[in-house]
Amino acid sequence: MKSQKIAGVAAILIAAGLSISAAISTGSICGIVKDPSGAVVPNAVVKVIHGNRVDTISTNKTGQFEAAGLPSGQYAVRVEAKGFSPTLESNLMVSAGHKTEADASLLIQPLTEEITVLAGN
Fold it and tell me: Domain 27-108 has what CATH class?
């Protein structure tokens, strides 16, 4: 009788574990965006790209971002912020139940200035 109860409890625990793992069908991509000095970049625009799907989010005040609820597969992450050159990291693999890290280091965008000189007669 006691062994039947133990077997019954074990079967319930195994079934519960299987149903929980089956329910987790998505993963996430997270990271921190920093500038060349190592300072965090708040309010950077982060685009998480998977085929034709593009999720756009922003970094928080500590430069962190997380895109959750992503189907498993291959992704790219593009990060943009004012005054910095955009960066792209591709070939990121997302797996169900896991977080994929995609930290980004932005480079300062070079200033460009156009000067037009007109010659007089």
Answer: mainly beta
